[in-house]
Specification:
With 595 residues, the chain is α+β, with helices and mostly antiparallel strands. It is built from 18 helices and 28 strands. The chain is globular. The chain binds one RNA strand of 76 nucleotides through strand 7, strand 8, helix 6, strand 20 and strand 23.
RNA sequence: GCCCAGGUAGCUCAGUCGGCAGAGCAGCGGUUUUGUAAACCGCAGGUUGUGGGUUCGAAUCCCACCCUGGGCUCCA
């Protein structure tokens, strides 16, 4: 799961970064050419190219991008040499001040203050001089293939209270072929966009009348979801979990105790008042699950307790961050809370981690990134719970990760104040990482709610509590899955598994008979009896990404067969109905990706 | 929330300078009865996101709001 980069690959990566960063300088030079009043902020290389942030006298238009593209090409043609030089800090400050570049002055002042540097590094190409650490390629001619993609808003230093700048994004590659391949990849990503597929495959939608960030599941999407939930239920039952159900709202005092009103209220919907009591829509399930635990005295004998619920939560998200199913305001967590004794912790962690990975594997997610977020030792005031608990929990997580031979990234200081955690992420087709599963210790809630169990010696003890979500959000998981498969769900998830395509009307009756047979066997089947040509029916089934198309005509009726075409385009020829039915059932039951 | 770009039929989009709101696909009706990715003909479909303003006249210009997209910030 970790990538070992060979030395020459590292060198190539460094060269690519230098090239992209050089492209950013060329962009800045072109911008000053176009708008001499432009104030420059920063222009780093990024994963697929580069950007540069500008403070400009007016808004950029698409035509400006074209003009910048042309000017950049001219600069590249001129093969201007990148010259490195240094300048004492004071001189550099007045240099950039004279040139009306306040952001550069601020950067120098920060360097002076934070790194106490005496002189700064500059790079010059043509007339353009920029504060820059480098490295760069030799001259602008070595910048390679690039394209400016879009403009966007960005804050100076990422701080929304500061000046908003205009960011120009570009992509840059060593060769024209690499560039074209990347542009093709972007097109493909657009085709696989879950929002687009959601509409085309009639899976879900959003309604202006309902509100932004609130998902409406259509029949087909609902079918996929319920299949996912069936699998969730089945696996959790086998995994020793117990199913609970809790309400959608709870009293203000509950959220006061849990601490959510203190540290999560920005993300909570405003309260509703009922009988002079304030109730909040739940942004998390934990306080409710805790109530189940607390409903009676617990004995050490009944631990571990594993409660799970597909609980729909609502969180206020700022309007600009909503993104289809991947970032919604209402979503369903497949939440579980594990309550265990200290001596059970290690085995519980290994068990829950293994459980998560097994299920993700079924969905075809093989490439995962694991992150272990830990506390900062000694900074005890920033964290709830006892130092020894933190150490124990971290050791338990490490042990579980090691036992399963998993590689992970250690994120020191990234833990929440209430406990360390392991997050499992996948990277989507656009290269964006999304968090799926999370396994989090919580030292705060058991303390806040005074959770206890009676130990062997009759004294009250505090249980460990672990939050665990596997899909994370069912909506998000579904969205990622949709993009992952490009809408072509494996048989077990497909909302329609088979479309029967009668060639002419006289074959409709036989088609219906076959459909009834398949349907009785539990296969999800449609018959396309429209008065269309077979080719049109195949095309439509193909576009709907139905796994199997079963063509029936005179020959098939004579043989009691169906002529099977897969959505891959492969033609399987005539199969006996029973044979075909068995094949579909086998693929569905094994949850295989094969057709 | 902020910056920018958008919102025209179910979908994708056109609509010039302010002068009768259009096309393709989907839908519906008919004709056709088809052998592995789009048959043909016809019909219907609109509060031009919503509300206000300017104007003889607004899809088009102005204002406010709603929603969507690209980012920033934040997160499952």
């Amino acid at each position: 799961m970790t990538v070992t980069i060979k030395t020459d690959e590292q060198q190539r990566a460094r060269h690519l970064a230098a090239m992209r960063h050089s492209a950013a300088h060329v962009l800045a030079a072109a911008m000053l050419d176009l708008m001499p009043d432009a104030k420059l902020a920063i222009g780093p290389a990024i994963d697929t190219g580069f950007y540069y942030d500008f403070d400009l006298p007016r808004t950029l238009t698409p035509e400006d991008l074209d003009a910048l593209n042309r000017r950049m090409r001219r600069i590249i043609k001129q093969k201007q040499v990148f010259q490195h030089s240094t300048m004492p800090v004071d001189e550099a400050k007045s240099f950039f001040l004279e040139r009306n570049q306040p952001y550069k002055v601020e950067l120098i002042e920060d360097l002076e203050r934070e790194a106490s540097v005496a002189e700064v590094s500059l790079y010059q190409n043509g007339d353009f001089i920029d504060l820059c650490e480098g490295p760069h390629v030799a001259n602008t001619g070595a910048v390679g293939a690039f394209k400016l993609l879009r403009t966007a808003g960005a804050y100076w230093r990422g701080d929304e209270n500061r000046q908003q700048l205009q960011r120009v994004y570009g992509t840059a590659w060593e060769t024209k072929d690499d560039l074209n391949a990347y542009l093709k990849f972007l097109e493909e990503a657009e085709r696989r966009d879950h929002r687009r597929l959601g509409r085309e495959l009639d899976l879900f939608s959003f309604s202006e009348d309902i509100g932004p960030g609130l998902v409406v599941w259509h029949a087909k999407g609902g079918h996929v979801r319920s299949t996912m939930e069936d699998y969730w239920r089945e696996s959790h039952r086998a995994g020793g979990y117990e199913f609970i159900y809790t309400p959608h709202i709870g009293k203000a005092s509950l959220w006061q105790t849990s601490g959510h009103l203190n540290w999560f209220s920005d993300n909570m919907y405003a309260p509703v008042e009922i009988d002079e009591q304030q109730y909040y829509l739940k942004p998390m399930n934990c306080p409710f699950h805790i109530q189940v635990y607390k409903s009676r005295t617990r004995s050490y004998r009944e631990l571990p307790l594993r409660y799970t619920e597909a609980g729909t939560v609502y969180r206020y998200e700022r309007s600009g961050v909503l993104h289809g199913l991947l970032r919604a305001r209402g979503f369903t967590q497949d939440d579980a809370h594990l309550f265990c004794r200290p001596d059970q912790m290690d085995s519980e962690l290994t068990r829950v981690l293994q459980f998560c990975l097994g299920i993700l594997d079924t969905y075809g997610f093989k490439d995962l990134e694991l992150e272990l977020s830990t506390w900062e030792r000694g900074e005890t005031t920033k964290y709830a719970g006892e130092a020894q608990d933190w150490e124990l929990a971290e050791a338990g997580l490490v042990k579980a990760l090691d036992e399963l031979d998993l590689s992970y990234k250690r994120m020191a200081g990234e833990a929440a104040f209430y406990g360390p955690k392991v997050d499992i992420k996948i990277v989507d087709v656009l290269g964006r990482p999304w968090q799926l599963s999370t396994i989090q210790f919580d030292f705060w809630l058991p303390q806040a709610f005074g959770l206890e169990y009676i130990g062997e010696d009759g004294s009250a003890r505090r249980p460990f509590m672990i939050h665990r979500a596997l899909y994370g959000s069912i909506e998000r998981f579904f969205g990622i899955l949709l993009e992952h498969y490009g809408g072509a769900f494996p048989v077990w998830l497909a909302p329609v598994q088979v479309v029967i395509i009668p060639i002419a009307d006289r074959h409709n009756e036989y088609a219906q008979q076959v459909a009834a047979t398949l349907s009785e066997a539990g296969v999800l089947v449609d018959v396309d009896t429209r008065s269309e040509r077979m080719n049109a029916k195949i095309r439509d089934a193909q576009l709907q990404k139905v796994p199997y198309m079963a063509v029936v005509g005179d020959r098939e009726i004579d043989d009691g067969a169906v002529n099977v075409r897969l959505r891959t385009g492969e033609n399987c020829g005539a199969l006996q109905v029973a044979e075909f039915s068995a094949r579909v059932q086998d693929r569905a039951q094994s949850r295989s990706e094969a057709l």
